[in-house]
Amino acid sequence: MSTPRSDAGSRRTQRRVAFATIVGTTIEWYDFFIYATAAGLVFAQVFFAPAGESIGLLLAFASVGISFLFRPLGAFLAGHFGDKIGRRPMLVLTLILMGISTTLIGVLPTYETAGLLAPVVLLLLRILQGISAGGEWGGAVLMAVEHAPPSRRGRAGSFPQLGVPLGMLLASGVTALMTGWISPGDAFIEWGWRVPFLLSIVLIAVGYLVRRAVEESPIFTEIAEKKQQTKVPVAELFRKHWLLVILAALVFAGNNAAGYMATGGFIPSYATGEKVGLDRTDVLLAITFAAAMWFIFTLLSGFVADTIGRKRTYLIGFGVQALMVFPLFWLIDTGSLPMLYLALGLFAIGLGMSYGPQAAWYSEIFPASVRFSGVSISYALGAILGGAFAPTIAQALINSTGTSASVSLYLLGMTVVSIAAVLVLRDRPGIDLSINNQAEQEVGATVFDKRRAPAFEKVNS
After folding, report:
1. Are 423 and 254 in contact (CB under 8 A)?
2. Spatial separation of the C-alpha atoms in residues 414 and 408, rounded to whole Å
3. φ, ψ for residue 309 (rounded to 5)?
4. Are the C-beta atoms of 250 and 415 separated by less than 8 Å?
5. What does DSSP assign to residue 179?
6. Rounded to whole angstroms, how far apart are CA atoms 305 and 79?
7. How far is 193 from 247, CA to CA, in rounded Å?
8. Pick from 13, 438, 7, 14: nearest CA to 226
9. Which residues contact 434 (CB under 8 A, 6 or more apart)?
10. Which label site among 67, 232, 340, 382 has the fewest CB atoms less than 10 Å from its CB?
11. Angle at 363 between CA 362 and CA 364, to 5 degrees
12. With DSSP H G I counted as helix, E B as strand and the rest as coil, what are the percentages for the chain, rounded to 5?
């Protein structure tokens, strides 16, 4: 099977696309994770102080989650225009929107200075971050996967996925630098937390230049040349492929819930709280280590997915995650810093193995004419079901039960749901992704759909 171009783009073009998607998604997720990290460490004090410590922390975590509710809006908008005018313009626009929103958070007045206006504007900017994140991912993964030859889609698709652990590593590393050396103690509360947000403006300038230099996806170029864009891609998607959207969202939900629990707000807050009592900077450095492990296994999983398939790779990842949900908190609850490193490092293995293959698998189950809409909306809905309020739910469970076992049970339930969704979807490695193969792409993506092409009988049996 072939792509619109016989060589699926030159190796040089593929390297340029890989670099551009990694840089862009790293910057986007740095911005997104900086907020989650700050919410767990400082926002309860500077924006929600009148609510008290416990409720203020819940409100801070809820502000992390509220942006997820607006990811589908970003996904709908980016998907609609990405399927009509191209992948590349959406990548540039979402990057700029995220950067402006993040930088403005860095100059916001606190509740003490501006009263209720401060948290209200904070939430508005967080919503803009959510819209940007909802539109970013689909464009980045399609640029990577649609430029790649069929045998390398798994590893090509893992490159934009690397932006998440890299963004987390950068966010936690910069915050640790601020809390440990540049603005320790009260200085971090007073002004130090602002610096990571303000750095975004520099990163956005770099990302903009890199993304502008990348060629449009060859598959969309072919769609545009043949004038085969769908008039209303989102309507077509839900009319024909609503089940695929739900299943793909559920596949992501378990990974996203675990990811935001481990690296996005809750564990930094939990590990530095009274029960565990670890130092703030030490915990941030442990989170940075976990992000590095997440990066390694996300990259590895792309190669594994090209070797044994996306489905098997996912099952390995979710299997490791299920095994670790209880030991994660058992080790953290010891109050030992080495045990925290061990807990997060082992947990990150499952995170990476169940995240790297996502881009290739999503791209292979949705038809070319609605692919941007399909991957973006599925990802956004999965984020709502999984990560949106995972830190808030975890904090509420701790408040009501007094034990971390309740959080482990919650994570186990989310993991089991994702495993069930994985088992329902079929692997389709090597399927021709071009608009010329739309008829074959329309069928056979689930085990319920018996309308499989003969070429895929052995692959999926």
Report:
1. no
2. 10
3. 105, 160
4. no
5. I
6. 26
7. 38
8. 438
9. 2, 3, 4, 219, 222, 368
10. 232
11. 90
12. 80, 0, 20
Q: Mean pLDDT highest for which of 134-138, 266-270, 287-291, 401-405?
A: 401-405
The answer to which of 216-230, 349-363, 406-420 has the lowest mean pLDDT is 216-230
Would you state the structure tokens that stand for residue 399, as one six-digit string? 């408040």
Say if residue 119's pLDDT is above 90.
yes
Query: Comparing C-alpha atoms, which of 242, 188, 232, 173 is closest to residue 369?
Result: 232
Q: Does residue 127 contact residue 66 with C-beta atoms inside 8 Å?
A: yes
Residue 11 CB-density burial (10 A; 0-12 exposed, 13-18 middle, 19+ buried) = exposed
- Rounded to an integer, what distance in angstroms lies between the CA atom of residue 68 and that of residue 355? 18
Look up residue 163 and give its amino acid: G
| Residue 257 per-residue DSSP state | H
Q: Count CA atoms within 13 Å of residue 199 on its CB side.
A: 18
What letter represents residue 205's amino acid? A
Q: So what's the pLDDT on residue 427?
A: 94
φ, ψ (nearest 5 deg) of residue 446: -125, 165
Q: What does the radius of gyration of the chain's CA atoms come to, in whole angstroms?
A: 21
What is 203-252 written as a DSSP string? HHHHHHHHHHTSPPPHHHHHHHHTT---SSHHHHHHHHHHHHHHHHHHHH
Q: What are phi and psi of 252, to 5 degrees?
A: -80, -25
Which of 352, 333, 339 minimizes the C-alpha distance to 408? 333
- Residue 157 identity: G
- CA angle (400, 405, 407) in 5-degree steps: 70
Stated length of the chain: 461
Flag whether pLDDT at 90 surpasses 50: yes
Predicted confidence (pLDDT) per residue in 28-60, tens digit: 788 878 998 898 889 999 999 888 878 988 898
Q: Tell me the two tokens of residue 16.
A: 């340029």
Residue type for 335, please? G
C-alpha–C-alpha distance, residues 269 and 357, integer Å: 30
Per DSSP, the three-state class of 425 is strand
* Torsion angle in degrees (nearest 10) through CA of 404, 321, 389, 199: 110
